[in-house]
Design brief:
The complex is a heterodimer of chains A (305) and B (322). Chain A has 305 residues and is mainly alpha-helical. Chain A has helices spanning 2-7, 19-49, 68-75, 77-108, 115-127, 130-141, 147-154, 168-196, 200-208, 213-242, 245-251, 262-272, 276-304. Chain B starts with 10 loop residues before the first helix and ends in a 7-residue tail after the last helix. The chains are: A mainly alpha (305), B mainly alpha (322). At the A-B interface, helix 1, helix 2, helix 4, helix 5 and helix 6 of A face helix 1, helix 2, helix 4, helix 5 and helix 6 of B.
């Protein structure tokens, strides 16, 4: 009897919370605690820090400076150069990721022997650490003994070994290439989901209407993939503008300033110049920029729950 | 005739109606084969070069043109890593077979094994905490209707998109004030924060796909909310739990930026940090660094190949519902 009584709509308690609401509260409490302490608090604290002139080289005096740190960042030509490089890096990377991921997704959407093996292999770049990825490309790009020089030389594309990462004009595209290799798998998987949702009668109808394979790609596949593409582009842009690991290991912002992007600037300002106030201001600017983009991703994800 | 007007089942027969010619089939097969080979080369060739050079000696690795496959494969790089803790490497004890390019082992090699241990401890703790904290919360959000549910889901997703680079300053000050710099707990706490939103997201999507009737039936049978979760839903949600374990393990194993800030000595340094420190040391041969890199990628590669299905379903969580 008691079981039936409990299953009925529980009576409201004095606080206005039902049994369900109280149990939900208890079950969510640990998560809420973790997120408030280690995500919400830091991001608010970051804003607070960004209003002070906090330099670890001068720990005794921490004056409140309102928005001076932001003004200083915006007035710094180095910052705007870094913004330009970040945009260039992101555009190269996102365009390459989208094109390659589309090709791979079209391949893996076909039915052929060995498709499952390829799908498993696809996950490898996604799974390995960025540090290993960076190390791998650093060694491939090595100007003395690297594979890129060796291969191009053996194929007679170059007459003598060349400098790769050390060449200011080539640095950003080469770093982008390493980034693309690691990011294509996730983008492919997101596009594959989109491809699977295209009803097969659309293709059948197009075939009956005499559309060839290229026409089917442009008039059936690509329009239907638009939402997945939007997700891929926005997500990968977010990843690209915040990316740090490759810049740290491959070039440390060099040669000169050739790969000095905003994420690298934040690190240098904070941990090399020990200027936490401006570092926080810069990282806040970066966070707000991604926030606008992430709103689009959030809306897509939240709709799925 | 419009195919859309046909019953779904006959869509295939329409395709057969215009069966491609023999030439078309051959062309399709050839095209797919070429694409598959290009794809495999793109993914595997860079890694093959990493693995190949990790089996070359310091002497062989500087060949011009490079030896794509080791002519004299050697395990000395790996042996050095695993032997390192016992022998302290000095200038005298380094093997001087060839003074210019002998098998030089950096003194920091002995940090690698402890770093692997640290990475394992941190990743396992993060996985465990993800499940302990994430599963109850996800169940509550998926199956209990309460005020503020939608806001909570948005809140959790929002924390997921904060860039880690934007958290470096507050995290650093926070961890320093707690006195946890150079302590594994600093990594466990922060990794939990960056992995849990996605874990909860995967779990919510999965719980949502399970019928609500299970919940009602269990409650009628007298289960409390906690019992409903542990005895009814949890056993059914194994795929999503596996996905959560994989994602939180891989994220923790691979994380670099936060570990770079919080760890200072081999006591707490994780594998990515030690490997990265090799790459900035010009005295260390790439043959040795690559061996360390191979060790760093073995667990992720094995997990990716074994659990491909779970990973893909996690990455696309909820996408099928459109």
């Amino acid at each position: 009897m008691s079981a039936i009584a409990r299953s009925a709509r529980p009576p409201r308690t004095g606080l206005g919370a039902s049994y369900d609401e109280r149990s939900a509260f208890v079950l969510i409490l640990p998560l809420a605690g973790v997120l408030l302490a280690v995500a919400v608090f830091p991001i608010l604290y970051s804003f607070y820090v960004s209003l002070f002139s906090l330099k670890l080289t001068r720990p005794q005096r921490v004056p409140f400076v309102w928005f001076d740190n932001y003004a200083a960042v915006f007035a710094d030509p180095q910052f705007w150069d870094a913004v330009q490089r970040t945009v260039a890096f992101s555009v190269i990377a996102v365009v390459a990721i989208s094109v390659l991921a589309l090709l791979v997704a079209l391949l893996l959407n076909e039915d052929f022997p060995g498709r499952r093996v390829l799908s498993a292999v696809l996950l490898i770049p996604w799974a390995i650490p960025y540090v290993a990825n960076a190390l791998m490309w650093k060694w491939i790009y090595d100007s003395n003994y690297g594979a890129l020089n060796g291969l191009l030389y053996q194929l007679d594309f170059i007459n003598s070994y060349m400098v790769w990462l050390g060449d200011a004009d080539k640095t950003l595209p080469l770093i982008a290439n390493a980034f693309v290799w690691k990011e294509v798998p996730l983008a492919t998987i997101l596009l594959l989901v989109g491809l699977k949702t295209i009803p097969s009668d659309l293709y059948a109808a197009a075939k009956v209407d005499g559309a060839n394979i290229v026409q089917r790609l442009f008039h059936v596949t690509l329009p239907a993939l638009a939402p997945s593409f939007a997700l891929v582009i926005v997500y990968e842009t977010m990843m690209a503008i915040r990316h740090f690991d490759l810049f740290f290991i491959l070039t440390e912002g060099g040669p000169g300033n050739a790969s000095d992007v905003v994420a690298w600037r934040v690190y240098v300002e904070t941990f090399r110049n020990l200027s936490f106030g401006t570092g926080a201001a810069m990282s806040y600017i970066l966070a707000l920029t991604t926030l606008a983009l992430s709103y689009i991703v959030l809306r897509t994800l939240a709709r799925r729950i | 005739m419009k195919a859309a007007a046909l019953p779904v089942a006959s869509a295939r027969s329409v395709q057969h109606y215009r069966a491609p010619s023999r030439l078309g089939r051959v062309a399709r097969g050839a095209l797919l084969a070429i694409a598959a080979i290009l794809f495999l080369a793109y993914i595997l060739a860079p890694m093959a070069w990493l693995v190949s050079s990790s089996f070359q000696s310091e002497h062989e690795i500087v060949s011009k043109p490079p030896h794509w496959l080791p002519h004299e494969p050697t395990l000395e790089n790996f042996a050095a890593i695993f032997a390192a803790p016992d022998q302290s490497v000095t200038y005298e004890t380094r093997r001087a077979t060839d003074p210019a390019s002998g098998g030089f082992i950096p003194s920091t090699a002995k940090n690698l094994l402890p770093a692997i241990g640290n990475s394992m401890i941190v990743a396992s703790a993060v996985v465990l905490l993800n499940l302990l904290v994430g599963v109850p919360a996800a169940y509550a959000m998926a199956k209990i209707r309460f005020r503020g549910r939608q806001v909570s889901i948005y809140g959790i997703l929002a924390t997921r998109v904060i860039p880690d680079i934007a958290l470096v300053v507050p995290f650093f000050l926070f961890i320093r004030n707690l006195g946890l710099l150079d302590n594994l707990w600093s990594l466990i706490i922060t990794y939990l924060a960056i992995t849990i939103p996605f874990s909860v997201f995967i779990l919510i999507s999965y719980f949502e796909s399970l019928p609500d009737d299970l919940d009602k039936a269990a409650r009628v049978d007298g289960c409390s909310r906690w019992q409903t979760l542990t005895k009814v839903y949890l056993p059914l949600s194994l795929p999503s739990v596996v996905a959560v374990v994989l994602f939180s393990f891989l994220s923790s194993w691979n994380e670099f930026l936060l570990a770079l800030m919080f760890t200072q000595t081999p006591k707490s340094q994780t594998l990515p940090i030690v490997v990265a420190s090799f790459t900035s040391d010009f005295t260390i041969s790439f043959s040795f660094i690559n061996a360390a890199g191979v060790l760093a990628i073995i667990p992720p590669v094995v997990l990716a190949l074994l659990f491909e299905r779970y990973i893909v379903s996690g990455l696309t969580a909820g996408a099928v519902k459109g």
